[in-house]
Design goal:
The protein is an all-alpha fold and about 375 residues long. It contains 16 helices and 4 strands. It has a two-stranded antiparallel sheet. Strands 2-3 form a two-stranded antiparallel sheet. Helix 5 packs across helix 12 and helix 13 packs across helix 14.
């Protein structure tokens, strides 16, 4: 039984003929099942305005809005892909780092925003993927073998981390995942024979594609951008599937989800494992980008920044990680002209956003719609 389907018999007509069925049943074309599916689809893509009081968008309006959204997304992607042509090498590096971080934050958005499992261990999986890539690539293992290897390793560790999630929730689970992040960080720093300790692993080679080297900043940026878009497309498909509806049901009301036949244990494991696999993939690209891996980028503070990206952009909104990753990766660089004050201004801006927009930046249209409907 899927998350969007109520138990059998919930909408069965009473005995007594067709007249009774027509008078007591719901209007044709507006069944509760369809309404539930529409609600879960809206939640999956972060479309909260479709359920606002007093707003009943027509199918034509929804199609027009969807087409306009797709055109805007395509235009933004094309512009971003061409942007490094106008930038110097450091600007291209920042664009590539943005893509790498976006892979990890999208995975965290699935875990936290859609499945409702609070995690502060995303940087640990990010680091595990990076170290697997650094060790394997230096040993001569092909990049396209390392990529699924790191994803599967982090997926398995994410499944293992799901066991505490079955017993603790919310801030207790956050502390459990935070402890896991600290443990992984200490292993990275102290196991010098494997990780190189604080000296790290240098000389990580970049991949080649069909015999063409991707050592240049521009080719590697486009290579990373392609895989970032592929990962986002896969997550979009997942959230549109019955699995995505089950994740939303698990987040909103686990007891009701279980009563509808959803295996909440399996979906809790999957939420953490898929989010961890995304971080592992991001770690592989990070190792190839910087070509030097050491423990500092995988401190638990990196997990806090990723969680901040989810909250600032809009938790549980499909494009929320894009806005949030811009805030945590690019905004500090744009504020560097303030020299010693740029971190203070960055912190103040984040606090102001949390006060005035607790639902994230992407909640602004919803807030305006509610104000209009209240008038």
């Amino acid at each position: 039984m899927s998350a969007a389907e109520p138990p059998q018999g919930a909408n069965s007509a009473p005995a007594g003929g067709s007249a009774a069925r027509e008078s007591d049943g719901p209007p044709r074309g507006r069944t509760p099942e369809r309404g539930a599916r529409r609600s879960f689809d809206a939640q999956a893509w972060g479309d909260h305005t479709s359920t606002l009081p007093g707003t009943v968008p027509t199918s034509g309006a929804r199609r027009a809005t969807g087409m306009a959204t797709k055109l805007v997304v395509v235009a933004v992607v094309v512009a971003f892909a061409l942007l490094p042509l106008l930038l110097k090498s450091y600007g291209t590096y920042l664009c590539t780092l943005f893509c790498v971080t976006l892979m990890a934050t999208y995975g965290l958005n699935l875990t936290v925003g859609y499945a409702g499992q609070m995690s502060l261990g995303q940087a640990a999986f990010y680091g595990i993927g990076a170290y697997i890539a650094a060790i394997s690539l230096k040993a001569g293992v092909p990049f396209f073998v390392v990529l699924p290897l790191a994803a599967l390793a982090c997926f398995a560790l994410g499944l293992a981390l799901g066991f505490p999630a079955l017993r603790v929730q919310h801030h207790y689970l956050a502390f459990a995942t935070l402890g896991f992040n600290i443990l992984v960080y200490l292993v990275m720093r102290n196991e010098e024979k494997i990780t190189g300790g604080t000296f790290g692993i240098s000389g990580v080679p970049r991949p080649s594609l069909f015999g063409h080297s991707l050592d240049g900043v521009l080719p590697f940026f486009w290579f990373t951008l392609f895989f970032t878009l592929l990962l986002i497309a896969l997550l979009g498909w997942l959230l549109r599937s019955p699995w995505g509806r089950a994740f939303a049901a698990l987040r909103d009301n686990p007891i009701r989800a279980e009563s509808l036949g959803i295996n909440i244990t399996a979906y809790t494991f999957l939420a953490l494992a898929i989010g961890a696999a995304c971080a592992g993939v991001a770690g592989v690209f990070f190792a190839a980008l910087v070509q030097f891996v050491e423990p500092a980028p995988f401190h638990f503070s990196a997990s806090l920044m990723m969680l901040l990206a989810i909250i600032v952009g809009g938790s549980g909104r499909f494009f929320g990680p894009v806005i949030g990753t811009v805030i945590i990766v690019l905004l500090p660089e744009w504020l560097r002209f303030m020299q010693n004050w740029y971190l203070a201004v960055f912190g103040f801006a984040v606090v102001a956003l949390m006060i005035w927009l607790p639902g994230g930046i992407l909640s602004i249209p919803e807030r305006f719609a509610r104000e209009r409907s209240a008038k």
